[in-house]
Design brief:
The protein has 370 residues and is an alpha+beta fold. The chain has one domain (14-222, 271-353): Beta Barrel (Elongation Factor Tu (Ef-tu), domain 3). Helices cover 19% and strands 28% of the residues. It has helices at residues 108-113, 117-125, 133-140, 146-151, 188-198, 229-233, 346-369, and strands at residues 41-56, 67-76, 80-91, 94-102, 158-164, 179-182, 202-203, 214-220, 223-227, 267-270, 273-285, 309-313, 323-327, 340-344. Strand 3 (80-91) and strand 4 (94-102) form a beta hairpin. The longest helix has 24 residues, at 346-369.
Length: 370
């Protein structure tokens, strides 16, 4: 007897429309309770999937202690440049940005993204000129430098870093930078000190993510265009005698003559924001050892990984070259989930395999001669 399956396709994702941006970003971040200030999220570019090898460390698993093939996703994470600091205040309606400090000279990749960067900065600093005296006090109280931010620290509820990615450091051929926010742990005063220290400098993935921990990922998944109800919602195909096979049998009653929003209908499939929780971080590797992740011919549709990278257990939404947002986890997880030790990349096991293959060929030749 088949399992009970009244319908397929979650109703949690309506409306199923194309994402407005290809660059996904998280809206919520956990209360970590950490005393030190650490970045809570990072951005990278999806390279592809790779099979790692390691020993299963889950003591209640059937394959405990055995060497296992581990499906993993490689995300290249070139250093991000901190281009600004934004301060938020809190009221009954939530957090609202009150001011921000940005770099004076944006790089070429950033100018491709924000063409009026300098003009906006000048307009912000000169906003108080030519105004009446009633608005002068209001403009004076708006912090535009770190010194002014520190003076108004009691008004600040949260401080975040404004960062730009550096896709030109990768081999994907992208030049225009992506811009996002990096949230921090700790209180507002500690965040402000950390932000001042990092202002205008690079931020590396090792500062945000730790191997062995869990992480949440968010990205815009693969776009599949306009699809019918069978592919989009998994509706059962009708019998061969039916007039039409790949359609819904009934979309609603005659009276009242209405089609409910829960009825499966054809439409856009894919290219939507999707979040997946609690992915085990298998490896966080530096640029010096980036070559261990590369297959012999590079990743399909991506190329060669050249920078810091992260290996996550399982799959990740999105196509190759798609930006992926990674965040510290917000939900409780099983500590034994995807628990492995003695991790190795295929490139690290290849020489031994080649040796065994050559030995086998030599033995076969010797047998033929005899």
């Amino acid at each position: 007897m088949s399992a009970h399956k009244p319908r397929s396709g979650s109703l949690a994702y309506y409306p199923r429309v194309r994402s407005a941006r290809h660059f996904a970003n998280f809206r919520t971040y956990p209360e970590t309770g950490l005393k030190e200030v650490r970045p809570l999220n990072f951005f990278g570019y999806k390279a592809g999937m790779l099979t790692l090898f390691g020993r299963n460390a889950h003591d209640k698993s059937h394959t405990f202690g055995q060497e296992t093939a581990i499906p993993s996703t490689i995300i290249e994470c070139p250093p991000m440049k901190v281009i600004g600091v934004r301060a938020y205040r809190k009221d009954v309606f939530g957090l609202h940005a009150i001011s921000e400090v940005t770099v004076d000279k944006p790089e070429k990749d950033l100018r491709r993204k924000i063409k009026a960067f300098k003009e906006k900065g000048k307009a912000r600093q000169e906003a108080g000129k030519g105004k009446d005296k009633g608005n002068a006090k209001e403009e004076e109280s708006t912090p535009v430098t770190f010194e002014m931010l520190e003076k108004s620290a009691q008004k600040i509820a949260d401080v975040v870093l404004l960062v730009q990615t550096q896709p030109s450091m990768t081999g994907i051929g992208k030049k225009k930078a992506d811009v996002g926010e990096v949230h921090l742990s700790g209180d507002a005063v500690q965040k402000l000190v950390y932000a001042k220290e990092k202002f205008g400098k690079d931020l590396r993935v090792s500062e945000a993510l730790v191997a062995g921990n869990f992480a949440d990922v968010k990205a815009v998944d693969k776009g599949k265009g306009f699809q019918g109800v069978v592919k989009r919602f998994g509706v059962k195909i009708h019998r061969p005698k039916a007039k039409k096979r790949r359609y819904v049998g009934s979309i609603g009653p005659w009276y009242p003559p209405v089609v409910m929003w829960t009825v499966a209908r054809a439409g856009q499939m894919g290219y939507q924001n999707r979040t997946e929780y609690n992915k085990r971080i298998l490896v966080v590797e530096s640029q010096q050892n980036a070559s261990v992740a590369n297959p012999s011919a590079g990743f399909q549709n991506y190329g060669i990984v050249k920078n810091d990278f992260v290996a996550l257990h399982g799959s990740v939404p999105g196509a190759a070259k798609r930006p992926v947002a990674i965040r510290v986890p917000t939900r409780l997880q099983d500590a034994n989930k995807a628990k492995f030790t003695d991790l190795k990349f295929p490139s690290q096991t290849a020489p031994a395999d080649e040796g065994r293959a050559n030995k086998g060929k030599a033995e076969a030749k010797a047998g033929k001669k005899q």
